[in-house]
């Protein structure tokens, strides 16, 4: 029930102690403000990580070779390992029922590419037809590399959107020929990539063609795979880890590499990386919650101390109330009411300021692993409950003390 007299008492107390109330509210507002900003940054980190991992297939497994670092079977360390078509075929044959997409890759860094008077240096990659899905690319014109291109060593190319803009300036590119390191290739497709400009400065050609025209024989720079879907993330992660470990072991056996050599074969499992980043992000978010809650607790302590001072100042008044019949619960209600009001109002101010800052500054924050910090509705509701609980906790002990004041002692208080 609305009690006008109680509200008048609350506002009268605030008017008499403006500075004290302001400083008390400031501590609570600061706590909520810091908590919401930290949670927004945590969400921004999660957005950033998600954006980084959407560049390629979510469950991609990439393999590339390095240099041996351990002596094995009479072979000295320092051997450069080169993978070839046999490694790819072995992996596919052994895991055919598990694989969704697959491709070997032969890359040329800095391939000079020209079209009429325009030129640029781009990364050239020989790939198989599945590579479009391994890279999470979308065709905006034409087609991708197909099996016929691979079998007949066709000189065709799929160019990134940035390459298209650089060389063709928005004009038609399909069917045109570009000169790649002195060899003519026909443009059959244009793609876009979630990774943006960096990923769109590449040109894809058939793997078999790249091996032939660049005198690579059957050599490969890397292997790329994705596994078939599983019902749960846990099952997918377990299958991905098992596949990665088995593939690494098979390649080490095939190339006479010591099992404990960590530099000869490198396996990058995007599911494992995603799990690491999300686990780290979860820990960071928990840390942010901890820091924010501790800051709010500091504000609660301040409010509680102020309420104790108010109870002390109003001891005689409380004694008179009890002497004329006021019940303990009404005294507790009076103190809690004031405590919750001050805490909630200050907290809402801190909440609104933080949301205002996030709304305008959040979209401007774009770094490698932080993207558009934001706070969802559930977090805002959670902070509201925190405010109400904080106010109740802050006022409980002063209210309990006030309820236990004995009228005779209170009336003697000076």
TrEMBL record:
<dbReference type="InterPro" id="IPR003838">
    <property type="entry name" value="ABC3_permease_C"/>
</dbReference>
<protein>
    <submittedName>
        <fullName>Putative ABC transport system permease protein</fullName>
    </submittedName>
</protein>
<dbReference type="InterPro" id="IPR050250">
    <property type="entry name" value="Macrolide_Exporter_MacB"/>
</dbReference>
<keyword id="KW-1133">Transmembrane helix</keyword>
<feature type="transmembrane region" description="Helical">
    <location>
        <begin position="21"/>
        <end position="41"/>
    </location>
</feature>
<dbReference type="Pfam" id="PF02687">
    <property type="entry name" value="FtsX"/>
</dbReference>
<dbReference type="InterPro" id="IPR025857">
    <property type="entry name" value="MacB_PCD"/>
</dbReference>
<dbReference type="GO" id="GO:0022857">
    <property type="term" value="F:transmembrane transporter activity"/>
</dbReference>
<dbReference type="GO" id="GO:0005886">
    <property type="term" value="C:plasma membrane"/>
</dbReference>
<feature type="transmembrane region" description="Helical">
    <location>
        <begin position="377"/>
        <end position="397"/>
    </location>
</feature>
<keyword id="KW-1003">Cell membrane</keyword>
<comment type="similarity">
    <text>Belongs to the ABC-4 integral membrane protein family.</text>
</comment>
<keyword id="KW-0472">Membrane</keyword>
<feature type="domain" description="MacB-like periplasmic core">
    <location>
        <begin position="21"/>
        <end position="239"/>
    </location>
</feature>
<feature type="domain" description="ABC3 transporter permease C-terminal">
    <location>
        <begin position="291"/>
        <end position="407"/>
    </location>
</feature>
<feature type="transmembrane region" description="Helical">
    <location>
        <begin position="331"/>
        <end position="357"/>
    </location>
</feature>
<dbReference type="Pfam" id="PF12704">
    <property type="entry name" value="MacB_PCD"/>
</dbReference>
<keyword id="KW-0812">Transmembrane</keyword>
<feature type="transmembrane region" description="Helical">
    <location>
        <begin position="286"/>
        <end position="311"/>
    </location>
</feature>
């Amino acid at each position: 029930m609305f009690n006008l007299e109680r509200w008048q008492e609350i506002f009268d107390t605030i008017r008499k102690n403006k500075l004290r109330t302001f400083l008390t509210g400031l501590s609570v507002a600061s706590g909520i403000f810091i908590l919401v900003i930290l949670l927004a940054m945590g969400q921004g980190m999660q957005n950033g990580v998600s954006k980084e991992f959407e560049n390629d297939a979510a469950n991609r497994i990439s393999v590339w070779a390095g240099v041996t670092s351990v002596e094995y079977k009479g072979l000295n360390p320092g051997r450069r390992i080169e993978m070839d078509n046999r490694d790819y075929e072995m992996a596919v044959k052994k895991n055919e029922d598990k694989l969704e997409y697959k491709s070997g890759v032969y890359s040329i860094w800095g391939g000079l590419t020209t079209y009429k008077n325009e030129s640029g240096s781009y990364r050239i990659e020989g790939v198989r037809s599945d590579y479009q899905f391994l890279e999470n690319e979308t065709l905006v014109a034409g087609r991708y590399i197909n099996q016929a291109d691979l079998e007949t060593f066709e000189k065709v190319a799929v160019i990134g959107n940035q390459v298209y803009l650089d060389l063709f300036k928005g004009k038609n590119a399909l069917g045109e020929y570009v000169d790649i390191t002195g060899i003519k290739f026909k443009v059959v497709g244009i793609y876009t990539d979630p990774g943006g400009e960096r990923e769109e400065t590449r040109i894809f050609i058939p793997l078999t063609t790249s091996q032939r025209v660049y005198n690579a024989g059957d050599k490969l720079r890397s292997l790329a795979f994705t596994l078939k879907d599983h019902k749960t993330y846990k099952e997918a992660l377990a299958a991905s880890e098992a596949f990665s470990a088995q593939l690494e072991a098979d390649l080490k056996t095939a190339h006479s590499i010591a099992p404990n050599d960590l530099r000869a074969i490198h396996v990058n499992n995007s599911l494992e990386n995603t799990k690491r980043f999300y686990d780290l992000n979860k820990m960071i978010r928990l840390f942010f919650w901890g820091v924010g809650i501790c800051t709010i607790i500091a504000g609660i302590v301040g409010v509680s101390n102020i309420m104790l001072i108010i109870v002390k100042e109003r001891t005689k008044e409380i004694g008179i109330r009890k002497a004329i019949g006021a019940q303990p619960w009404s005294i507790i209600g009076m103190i809690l009411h004031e405590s919750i009001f001050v805490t909630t109002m200050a907290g809402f101010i801190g909440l609104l300021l933080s949301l205002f800052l996030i709304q305008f500054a959040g979209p401007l924050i774009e770094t490698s692993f932080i993207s558009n910090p934001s706070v969802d509705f559930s977090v805002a509701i959670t902070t509201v409950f925190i405010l109400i609980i904080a106010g109740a906790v802050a006022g409980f002990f002063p209210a309990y003390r006030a309820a236990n004041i004995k009228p005779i002692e209170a009336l003697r208080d000076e």
